[in-house]
Amino acid sequence: MNTRELQALYDLALRLSGVHDLDALLQDVVAQARRLLDVDIAYLALPGDDGALTIEVTDGSLGPRLRGVRFAPGVGIAGRVADRGEPVRSADYLADRDLEHSDAVDRVAREEGLRTIVGVPLRLRGRVVGVLMVAQRRVREFGGGEMTFLTSLGSFAAVAIDNARLITELRRHVDGAERAARVHGRMLGIALRGGGAEEVVRAVSAEFPGTVLLVDERDRPRVAASGGAVRPAALPAGESPAAAFAAERRTRRDGGAVTVPVASPHAYFGALRVAADAPLQDRDVRVLERAAMTLALVLVVEQAVGDAERRTAADLAEQLVAGRIGDEAAFARRARPFGLDLRAEHRVLVVETADDARVPVRLGDLVREHGGIAAPLRGRLAAFVRADEDVLRAFAATTGGTCGLGGPAAGAADLAAAHADASACVTVLKSLAREGACAAPADLGPYRYLLSGSGRADADRFVRATLGPLLDHDERRGTGLVRTADAFLSGGRHHTAAAAALHIHANTLYQRLDKITALLGDGWRDGDRALDVQLALRLHRLAADLCEEPPPHP
């Protein structure tokens, strides 16, 4: 989905969450599905006690025939969606022999002239609570974006339907109705204003005397509040992160505390825990569950927007370093809202680290603080940051990874060149067995000139002049004499160590060394000549590693 579609879905989700009348809500869902996807007809079926689905509302039908149609389990699009719990589409329903048909359902489909039909599940807490369908009276292909949009609408509709049902149930309890409406209104107001999770937790804490804590999907404290004010977030004394909430994912009473899951139909975000000063009544728990659902809606939207922003940042970074910009002015206008201002000087940080989920998060915090963008790029993490080199070096030291620095640079071409330098620095550090270090080009000593095109050309001429016969022999015969010479000289010219490093017998090593001497001449392993050969071997190895890097700037 693009940003416009995300905004439309966000606006619709907020509006649906505020509709408390179930009939009006169902009608609104199908009307919006028909309008936003530009289809001939939309309809929604809900399950009964016997497991059969009944079409409750329609929009765009030619008459009343479609409303009230029942689908036995497994029958038609609706039955298959309910059975599988996943989207189903048929390009030409009546001719689709892969589906289970019934005469009653087919007759209505024929009278309505339906051909292409798509159905998505309304899932809530792991079960299907309804099926949303759209249909066209001609064969039509629904693209991936449209399917994603319809599936997301179904997810929001499931939450909204459950919301409407919960509100209806709460209103049956006279003593708690007024409070539930007030709390729900306040939560909805926060969502409509685009408030985040912290604001929702603060609002909940104003309703329940005690401490309210939000933990994430791994039971890590995220935000806490009491009396409407944020306080340091921490697990209760004696509880470990593995203790407890994520494993159960259900409302739980534990002494004076109540924990409720914060989840959408497809994702678990964590749990909301209230350690109240007085025991909570059942109606209080229901209000808390309603707040948790509103919080889940806020987090769903935050996640969707965050994912879209990250994809855009990754796309911008890839276009920049690949030189696929075209109109630089247009690219600059597109990049500026995401933090990349081509007019300003940036430094580039490239990080190669183990699979540590904390590093991308912290890199995102770094660019938000100083300005710039960060994204996964070509198997590494890259950040274009408006910060001093000392700031980036200090950050790099905390990642545990191998880091390269480039810049400062402004403008698309120079920023791409700075990224190439930073990425090449990482490669050189790894080739020199300096994993975990951080370096800018100036830190690489004699290897710095390998980062430029002319430097690599000079290095290649030196390598050819020093090792030419050896390289040619390996290429013609498929032998490993270059690797043998490298292991021998790098290991201090100790025969036993070199043989062990190469996993060969000592006699084999002696034979190879004799062959190297025949090709390079006597004296290649001693004095200044040995230094030249060892330097050429290292440059050859670095050049092989760097050949996978983007082309360096001139």
UniProtKB/TrEMBL annotation:
Superkingdom of origin organism: Bacteria
Pfam families: GAF_2 (PF13185), GGDEF_2 (PF17853), HTH_30 (PF13556)
Chain ranges of the GAF domain: 21-171
InterPro entries registered for this protein in UniProt: CdaR-like_regulators, CdaR_GGDEF, GAF, GAF-like_dom_sf, PucR_C-HTH_dom, PucR_C-HTH_sf
Similarity section: Belongs to the CdaR family.
Protein name, per record: GAF domain-containing protein
Organism: Actinomadura algeriensis
